[in-house]
Amino acid sequence: MFDDFDGQAWSNDQGSRAQKLFAAVVLAALDDAIADDKKYGNGPDVIARWARSRDGREVLMCAGIDPTERCVQGLMEFVKKGVRTSVALSREESERRAAA
Q1: Can you tell me the distance from the alpha carbon of 94 to that of 89, in angstroms, rounded to the nearest whole number?
Q2: Helix, strand, coil percent content, the chain, rounded in steps of 5
Q3: Using CB atoms within 10 A as the burial measure, which of 45, 72, 74, 75 is most buried?
Q4: How many Cα atoms are found within 13 Å in the side-chain-facing hemisphere of 92?
């Protein structure tokens, strides 16, 4: 009886870990686009091209993100702001935004 439950729990946990892995790939793609934007000035175009590509859509779906045009526009706006993902996800940055 408990073997089935353990197997299902392991499968769900494994799926959650895989989703987190793909989310990390999305964050890395955003950081790369921000670096391209600072260096070449084409970061929003780079992330839009990636998000609209077949591989980009697949990664976004595996990360639990719906790869719609609205999502692409949000990714482009994030890259335009130029704030790296590690900084944007930090507690200090969220507190600073809340204060402003």
Answers
A1: 7
A2: 85, 0, 15
A3: 75
A4: 3
Closest CA to 30 of 62, 59, 54: 59
Single-letter code of the amino acid located at 86: S
Distances (CA, A) of 89 to 23, 92, 93: 13, 9, 7
Closest CA to 53 of 82, 33, 35: 33
**Does the CA dihedral 5-9-12-15 come out positive or negative?**
negative
Tokens of 82: 């130029």
| Beta strands, E only, the chain | none
